[in-house]
Amino acid sequence: MKLTVTNLTLVALTLVGVAASGVALRRLRITMRLATSGGELETNAKAGRPSKRGLNALVVLMGVGAGLLLFYRWRWVGEGGSPLAAHVDGLLLIATLLACVGLYVQSRPRLGGLAAFYLPVLTLLLAWAVCASAWTYRPFAMDTLNPVWRAIHLGGVYLGTLGCAVAAVAGGMYLFVQRQLKNKTNPRSLSRLASLESLERLVQHAAMLGFGLLTLGLISGVVIQQQADALAEGWWHSPKVVLAFAAWALYAVVMNVRVATVFRGRRAAWLAIGGFVLLLGVYGIVTSGGPD
User: Fold this and answer.
1) Residues 6+ apart with CB under 8 A from 285
2) 188: which of 35, 38, 130, 205 fits an S-S bond (Cβ 3.0–4.6 Å)?
3) Torsion of CA 13, 99, 113, 164, to 10 degrees
4) Buried/exposed code over 126-158 (b: 16+ C-beta within 10 A; e: otherwise)
């Protein structure tokens, strides 16, 4: 019954996410047209553009819903008294914080239009949580983990993934704005969106946060494995370890783009997106029953 509540709530939040993503994309399309239309056409476009307040309400609903579900699972479903008893809880934590970040971003004048890029990612995380709860649910073995190292490991992994998600979102919008510039889109339209400079800075800062926290997560994971049992032979070339290290290496490059100028701008955006995709691959291996 408790897992049914989790699954139904996650499905409902995912559907809200789909609706919110559609609203954000529609706002972006109309915003891009407003600067090139005039007179009656502009008035009609503004009348048909979804309100920012309504979009914010959907984001609040998703964030509060994910947070309350995480609290519910911690108090009445989780094992060992930990708020992060399974990967579905980690995904809920990331979704809750990403919604908070999204609301903050939408309030910033220099980051306009980013909702159309972070809301699909937020929806994807909620859909992934549905899979992690309904089909591949597997609670962590809390009794075999040192509580301090467990907190460092899970916190580093999940909060690091949040930073990487934000970097990937900023990278995606960077590529979009750059393409609009290449296609010589009306400058008035582009002035309503985040600038390339602001997006590049967001990619760098988010990648730096994600890199630092993922480093803690990787190191503490090795320590936990050593405490639980000797590392298995060939552990370093298991798919999970290879993908995790590859993602870590990509964000190490993005974090140092100020030094390695060849990886700035468009290349940094692609690296941020690629690192996040690799992290999702790690999650897929773990939640599908692969080795921890």
Assistant:
1) 239, 240, 243, 291
2) 35
3) -110
4) bbbbbbbbbebeeebeeeebeeebbebbbbbbb
Supply the Cα-derived Rg of the chain in whole angstroms: 20
Which residues have a Cβ under 8 Å from the Cβ of 253 and sit 6 or more positions away? 260, 263, 271
User: Measured between alpha carbons, how far is 4 from 69 in angstroms, rounded to an integer?
Assistant: 12
Nearest to 157 by CA among 206, 240, 217: 217
Rounded CA gap, 125 and 241, in Å? 21
Place of tokens 């914010």: 56
Strand segments (E) across the chain: none
Chain centroid to CA 286: how far? 18
Rounded to 10 deg, the angle between the 115-134 and 87-106 helix axes is 170
Angle between helices 239-255 and 196-228 (to 10 degrees): 140
Say how far apart CA 186 and CA 33 lie, in whole Å.
9
What element of type H or E holds 90? helix 87-106
Predicted TM-score (pTM) of this structure: 0.88
Q: Which residues contact 76 (CB under 8 A, 6 or more apart)?
A: 2
